[in-house]
Design brief:
Strand content: 15-25%
Oligomer: single chain
Shape: globular
Number of helices: 11
Order of helices and strands: HEHEHEHEEHEHEEEHEHHHHEE
Low-confidence stretches: none
Radius of gyration: 17 Å
Strand order of the largest sheet: 6-2-7-1-10
Structural class: alpha/beta
Largest sheet: 5 strands, parallel
Distance between the termini: 10 Å
């Protein structure tokens, strides 16, 4: 990433405070005391946002299942992602559906986890991190503030409660591994998980609960894409409710 060499020379590690907490409760607690929030929802919101924004598209997160997404997409002059990942030739929450998304496309992307978190950070600068852009997002975050909080999204059990997910703790650890400063115990634990499995990341996530679920549904390619490490230098950042590439012009 373009910032890496420059920022390595100016970081005072003692000035940075790195925290990590799960899900909606984590973001509600940490966003008021953070300069930057990094949302990590590897399968599949963050990976989809990364791919789309890296292609020059804009992603507009929207609440899942509120029945108003189509009307909202019309109001913001955008395409609404299909709810069904299996619709051929249509954009969806499936990262592979966005590989060739045209530049300047405006995409409304509802999701049960990543979108809800994106809309809950208030006025705090919000970035979308994943395994594909971990280094770029981390260094950009450090250029914007000293108090950085990473939020692994997790999944949901049938009763709606949070299910911690391997891919999100590993993705958070990937981002945090590039952050310099004082790491909270939760941040250290995330990094430890990532480093433990980074050399066999795809195998481990394929065998995780979320990975097996996607593979059984026919979306093995989505897991493959999500496990590619530092292949993108774009930085998806939420500006006026829309994810755009904040690395442009650096």
């Amino acid at each position: 990433p373009r910032l890496t060499k420059k920022l390595n020379m100016i970081f005072d590690q003692s000035e940075y405070d790195i925290k990590c907490e799960w899900g909606i409760n984590g973001i509600e607690i940490l966003s008021p005391v953070s300069d930057v929030i990094i949302i990590v929802d590897v399968l599949s919101f963050s990976t989809s946002v990364d791919i789309a924004v890296n292609n020059g598209a804009t992603v507009i997160p929207y609440l899942y299942d509120n029945g108003k997404a189509f009307d909202f997409s019309l109001s913001v002059n955008a395409v609404l992602a299909e709810r069904d990942r299996n619709v051929p030739g249509k954009f969806s929450l499936s990262p592979s559906s966005l590989i060739n998304i045209p530049r300047h496309t405006r995409l409304v992307l509802p999701s049960p986890n990543g979108s809800s978190l994106s809309l809950s950070a208030g006025n705090t600068l919000t970035l979308c991190g994943c395994i594909r852009n971990a280094e770029a997002v981390a260094y950009f975050a450090m250029s914007k503030g000293k108090r950085i909080s990473v939020i692994p999204a997790g999944e949901k059990w049938p009763d709606g409660s949070l299910r911690p997910a391997l891919e999100d703790i590993a993705g958070s650890g990937a981002v945090i591994s590039y952050l310099k400063g004082k790491l909270s115990p939760e941040s250290n634990a995330s990094v430890a998980v990532y480093r433990e499995i980074k050399n066999e990341l795809l195998v481990q996530i394929n065998n995780s609960s979320s990975g097996k679920e996607l593979i059984e549904r026919g979306f093995e390619t989505d897991v493959d894409l999500a496990c590619e490490q530092n292949v993108c230098s774009s930085v998806p950042g939420l500006v006026n409710g829309e994810y755009i590439d904040l690395s442009v012009g650096i």
